[in-house]
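seq/struct pair 1
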Amino acid sequence: MRARFLVLGDSLTFHGPSAAELVTHGRLWPNVAAAALGAQADVVARLGSLTRDGWWAMTKDAYVYSVLLPRADAVVLALGTMDHLPASVPSYLREGIPYLRPGGLRRGVRAAYLRAHPLAVRAFQGRVRMLPQRATDSYLTRSVLALRALFPGLPVIGIVPAPFAACSNYPVTATHPPAVEAARAWGRREGVPLLDLDAVAAPYFARRAHNPDGLHWSWELHREVGESLATLLARLWEAAPGPRRAAPSGEPLPPAHAIPVAAARPSSARR
């Protein structure tokens, strides 16, 4: 049986140089890693996903906690890049725009937001993020502790946030250096190995070999990230050979309400 790993991610897992792709596209970095290892990648991701969305996927998505997690031989928490993008309003307000009714009001509010966002980001100079760093660390820690409690020995990998280029949507990049430092500190503190997207992607962004949106990647960068993940997974699997599933075969992960959230919530957690 081929090894499988689960990637909880954002659009960097499925967006190519010019457009979003099917998650089965062979040139996307999770599939590059899987091919190098002779493994299978499962990807759960959506546009703009935050670390909070990864925790919700683990605890609220029945397919994730019933099927994907129990069969995974490793989990990659490929989240945090979107958390550190500069924001103009709190994420709950931005994400609430699609729910506005009637349609004319929704379209008007969206248009006003799109006009005001770059101006507000410049004014704030990166002081407001999509999700505060403390909350990012809290959701990642909560996720790791839950996985360790339910699947002892399961390799869990985090990321160092990828860089982004100044563009019309995100004209300020001041949020990136402190986010990189915080991610590396979190990995050391929690004992989580990290896929360093900053180190891998920085040379590409330095020569502007990225999507015109300033955020997504070239196929060459997808290939290099996939190869880096394959190397990291191979090292972890070599250190702990064999399937790392804690649940007996056929036994699903407990439903969301049974996950030991209290045990997995650090004292400083913020909802």
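seq/struct pair 2
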Amino acid sequence: MAIIITDECINCGACEPECPNNAIYEGGAEWRFADGTGVKGMFKGKNSGIEANAEDPQTPVSMDLYFIVSDKCTECVGFHDEPQCAAVCPVDCCIKDDGNVENEEELLKKKNHYTYNIEFMKLQFITILSVLAIFAFSCKSKKEGSSTTPAVDAYLPGDSQLKAIQVKFADATAATLKEGYDVYMGPCTNCHGKKNMYKHSEADWQKDVNRMAPKAKITDAQKDALWKYVLSMRLAKGTPAN
């Protein structure tokens, strides 16, 4: 059966937000079958017999106290183990309505009828999101898989890079290249992302390093290490100096 609110109601409003069917209204408020439900179009209330468009406003059941629309009340069957309005009411004025007796099967059927469209829309929404996620992942995979030249080929320098740079700078050390690598992967990458160091010419790289060093607030020693690091990577790969 449905729940009713008795005259002992103190209008605290504790019950209203707890109702999963939006069946509880403040005194004097118009109500609709569509409020908080999935009902659309013409609808006939099982308890009241009211037949109207679900969006049409209906006369308040009470002008002074909070009230429950019996047509929308399911005693929280399918949502909770007990009616939530009765559970939170501080004066125990939410009681079973002897004038609207319904068994659990009938209440569950009513609940499913009110929430069918909502659940269907949720399912549609989840399906659309899943399709979009798959599409986005597929596009990303194709883009990554179709790239023949990696956008980034930066890695910690080793012996081949050290030997290559020492041809031009005999004083270069592994520590110098490591420091250059740290600058490249730190301030440079944080600001501009990882650039393909083989795409631009040596002259362009030197120009960019000199131009961006003050903005990145790196020291002359760090700038020198960065330049030698980039150059070592290019030379070890066999990129022509130009």
